[in-house]
Amino acid sequence: MKLNRSTDMALRIAMLAAANPRRMTVDELSDQLDLPRNHVAKVVQRLQRLGVLVTIRGRSGGVAFAEDGGRTTVGHVVRAFEGDDEVVSCDEPACSLRAACRLRGELRRARDAFLAVLDDVTLGELVAGPTGPALLALGLPRPRPAPSGEPPGRDVSPSGELPAPDAPPSGGSPGRDVSPSGGPPGRDVSPSATVPRPPEPHAPPSPVGPSGARPAVPGPV
């Protein structure tokens, strides 16, 4: 058997009210059970007429579980919301096997056995043990897990060490341009080139005559 929507809502509302020692509003029931508010209000009125809930008007009012509501059986609530309908309808549309059908009787027996099991379970028993605290935790915000890892803005290597600063290029200090040969910047010196030697100073030319002889130097007179 499949219970209709109203029966399902009625059992859940009754269980939550039974587990909660304080009064609850229709809005709280709707939020914690994630059910439409208008439907919750109608189901609460029907449960009040069954003696399961007590409603109190006013600013401090609300919905509370009835004092004797714990002795109400689940079968009683299901019968009130499901009615006495057959498991299958043999009249709409009319079944041609209705005159000599044994299936209808067996389905009735199955329905009665189903309700008989529910008659042995009370609403108070449904919220016993860990079920009650679980119902009260419905709708509560879950704690967020703490973020793991290092604080933002800090780059850490997989081994857990901080990265070393960039080293300057070999052969010089940072900010100084060094040529491949090790010389000062601005001077291009190839590895195979030789530096030219400066020219030697020349002696002043001496006077020579046409014949190639040097002129005589006059002596003292």
Order of adjacent strands in the largest pleated sheet:
1-2
- Specify the overall morphology: extended
Total of DSSP H or I helical runs spanning 4+ residues? 7
What string gives the helices and strands in order?
Answer: HHHEEHHHH
Structural class: mainly alpha
Q: Summarize model confidence as the mean pLDDT.
A: 77
Low-confidence sequence ranges: none
Percent range of helical residues: 25-40%
- The amount of beta strand, in percent, is under 5%
Rg is 53 Å
DSSP E strands, number: 2
Largest sheet: 2 strands, antiparallel
Distance between the termini: 162 Å
Subunit arrangement of the protein = single chain
Describe the structure in brief:
This protein has 221 residues and is mainly α.
Could you explain the architecture of this structure?
The protein is mainly α. The chain is 32% helix and 4% strand. The protein has 7 helices and 2 strands, in the order αααββαααα. Strands 1-2 form a two-stranded antiparallel sheet. A hairpin with a 5-residue loop joins strand 1 and strand 2. Helix 1 (5-19) crosses helix 3, helix 1 (5-19) packs antiparallel against helix 4 and helix 2 (26-33) crosses helix 3. The radius of gyration is 53 Å and the shape is extended. The termini are far apart. The mean pLDDT is 77.
Helix and strand topology:
Blueprint: H1 5-19, H2 26-33, H3 37-49, E1 53-56, E2 62-65, H4 74-82, H5 103-118, H6 123-126, H7 131-136
Antiparallel strand pairs: 1-2
Helix pairs in contact: 1-3, 1-4, 2-3, 4-5
